[in-house]
Write a structure and sequence with these properties.
This protein is mostly helical. The chain contains five helices and no strands.
């Protein structure tokens, strides 16, 4: 899975989920896990190049910098987000 499409899948997931505790911040680590990629430079380029849009998305959903830490020992992002979300019917 490509790192950029993972970002859109996280956005689609957050837009569909009503409960804030089940949403995920778009972070380097989240993209790395979901994309199955260790290409840190590519992930950094995605986040840096789209930082304003990502920040706006986080603000819309009220996702603070430490939000993903709330998931520890409760759920894994790889189990929470199904792919590809944007192709699933409403």
């Amino acid at each position: 899975m490509n790192q950029n499409s993972v970002k859109f899948d996280i956005i689609a997931h957050n837009n569909r989920i009503g409960e804030k505790d089940l949403k995920w911040r778009i972070t380097n680590n989240a993209i790395k896990i979901l994309a199955g990629s260790s290409n840190q430079r590519a992930i950094d380029r995605i986040i840096t190049g789209q930082q304003q849009a990502i920040d706006a998305h986080h603000a819309t959903h009220g996702l603070e910098a430490n939000h993903n830490a709330k998931h520890k020992r409760k759920r894994k992002i790889s189990e929470a987000i199904e792919f590809p979300l944007e192709l699933q019917p409403e």
